Amino acid sequence: MTIINNLKDNFFTTFKTNSENVFFSPGRVNLIGEHTDYNGGNVFPCALSFGTYAVVSKREDREISVHSLNFEQLGTIDFNLDNLSYEKKHDWANYPKGVIKTFEDHGFNIPTGFNILFYGNIPNGAGLSSSASIEVLTAVILNDLFNLNIDMISMVKMCQEAENKFIGVNCGIMDQFSIGMGKENCAMLLDCNTLEYRYSELNMTGHKLIVANTNKKRGLADSKYNERRNECETALAELQKVKNIACLCELTEEEFENIKDSVSNPIMAKRAKHAIYENQRTLKAVKALEDNNLELFGQLMNKSHISLRDDYEVTGIELDTLVSLAWNIEGVLGSRMTGAGFGGCTVTLIKEEFVDLFIEELTKKYTEKIGYEPSFYVVNISDGARKLI
Ligand code: GLA
Fold first, then answer.
1. How far is the CA of 60 from the centre of ligand 1 (A)?
2. 161 is known to lie in a ligand binding site
3. Which of 54, 190, 230, 244 is the most buried (most CB within 10 A)?
4. Where substrate is bound, by residue (predicted)?
5. Res 218: pLDDT
6. Considering only CA atoms, which residue is closest to atom 8 of ligand 1?
7. DSSP secondary structure string for all residues of 282-306
8. Which contacts (CB < 8 Å, 24+ apart) does range 227-235 have?
9. 128 a known binding residue?
10. 14 CA distance to ligand 1 middle (Å)
11. For residue 51, what are the β-bridge partners?
C-alpha cells in the first residue's frame, strides 16, 4: 500500500517522529432519500472507497498538532486541550477540534495531546461529505488512542453534534452515520427517526453507479441548507395543529394530501411535500432494488431529482444540466443529485457498457453549456471508518 507508506514518510517529515498508527474514514454517496434525515425519514446511503486517511502519534504534553496534505498552504495548525474554542483562522482544523471538544463535553477525558497528519482523496465541496469523514475519523482516533470504548453509533451522534454546535451547520445524521457504519458492497436503509438500520447488498451485475461532480464551488455552511430545515419546521408546526405527529416523515403521501391545506405558505407546503414523498419513495426504491428491479429503482431516482428540483428547489443549473443530459444517454436507468444540493454531485445508475459513452457525452455537452468540465468517479462501496494498522 504505497499511499500508507507515503503518508508515514510525510508524517515523519512534518513531526520528526515515526508512527505506525494509520486510520481511514470514507466519504459517502446517498442513493436516494434526500433531505429526509432531519425530517425523521429514511435514507439509503453507502460509504465510498475514497475518503480521509490519518497517521497519528500521542504526545506527552497537552498540545494538538494537525497537518493536512490537502491544505499545505495553511501549514501545521496547533492548539491546546485547554482551549478548544472555534477559531476561524484554524479553518479545516475546526472539524477535528469540534469533535475533541464534543467528546470532552460528554465527559470523555482526553489526557494528552497528539499529532495527526491528514490526507483526503474526496474532492472538497463536492457534497461527498469530506467534513463528516474527518469528524468520524477523529472520533475513531480518539477512541483508539485513549481506549475510550465508545460504540460507533454514540460516536456518530457526537460527530453530528460537533457539526451542529461547533461548526454551525444544522445537518441531519445521515452523513456521519453512513461513514461510521458503512459496509463493503452494501447501501444502508436508515430510519433517521429511530436509528434502526439494515444493510442491503448491491448486486448490480452489469451495471455501475457513477458519481459526476458539477465542480461548482459550494459551501454547505453558507448555503440555503439551514433555511430549508427552518421551512420544514414551520410546515411541521402547522401540520401538528391538525394531526399528532412528531416529524414530517411520519405522514404517508395520502395523509399529507388530506391535511396539506393547513400549511398556509405554499412554499412551505412544497418543502413538506418533498420530504414526505421522498421518504416513501426511498422505501419503494429499496424494495425495487431487493426485488432486482433496477429499472424501477432508476425511475424512482429520476422522480427524486424532479422533486428536489421543483418542490425542494435545491438543484440549480449545474445539477439540472448533468441530470437532464444523463437522462438522454443510452444505458442510463436513473440519475439524480445527491447530498445537500446547490452544486456538488449527481449519482447515476447505468449499464456498464455505456459508461465510456456517458462520460464522453456528459463532458462535451456539460462543458458547452456551463463553461467548465465535470469530473467522474466510479462508485466502489467500502466499510466505515476504521483503524487500518
Ligand atoms: C447534507 C447533510 C445531511 C442531509 C443531506 C441531504 O449532506 O449533512 O444530513 O440532510 O445534506 O439529504
1. 38
2. no
3. 54
4. 34-37, 225
5. 65
6. 171
7. HHHHHHHHHTT-HHHHHHHHHHHHH
8. 228/35, 228/271, 228/312, 228/314, 229/38, 229/170, 231/267, 231/268, 231/271, 232/35, 232/38, 232/39, 232/268, 232/271, 232/272, 232/275, 234/265, 234/268, 235/263, 235/265, 235/268, 235/269, 235/271, 235/272
9. yes
10. 34
11. 26
The ligand 1 atom nearest the CA atom of 172:
9
Q: How far is CA 14 from CA 3, 8, 9, 79, in A?
A: 16, 10, 9, 16
pTM above 0.85, yes or no: yes
Quick check: is 222 catalytic?
no
| Structural domains present in the chain | 2-200+383-387 (3.30.230.10)
Quick one: which of 169, 95, 191, 101 has its CA closest to 136? Answer: 95
For residue 339, the 8-state DSSP code is: S
**Which residue of 176, 225, 319 sits with most ligand 1 atoms within 8 Å of its CB, as the best mutation to test the pocket?**
225
Q: What is the pLDDT of residues 229-274, one digit of tens each?
A: 999 999 999 999 999 999 999 999 999 999 999 999 999 999 999 9
In this predicted model, what pLDDT tens digit does every residue of 57-78 receive, in sequence order?
999 999 999 999 999 999 999 9
Going from the Cα of 34 to the center of ligand 1, the distance in angstroms, rounded, reads 7
Grid coordinates in use for 132?
463528516
The residue from 9, 78, 144, 175 that is catalytic is 175
Q: Are 30 and 174 in contact (CB under 8 A)?
A: yes
Q: Is the Cβ–Cβ distance between 125 and 375 less than 8 Å? A: no
Report the greatest alpha carbon distance in the chain.
67
Helix (H) / strand (E) containing 81:
none
Q: Are 212 and 362 in contact (CB under 8 A)?
A: yes
Q: In what order do the strands lie in the sheet with 345-351?
A: 332-338, 345-351, 207-213, 375-378
- CB of 56 closer than 8 Å to CB of 39: no
Kindly list the protein residues whose Cβ atom lies closer than 6 A to any atom of ligand 1.
Answer: 34-35, 37-38, 171-172, 174-175, 339-340
What is the spatial distance between Cα 255 and Cα 43, in angstroms, rounded to a whole number?
A: 21
The answer to whether 34 and 341 have CB atoms below 8 angstroms apart is yes
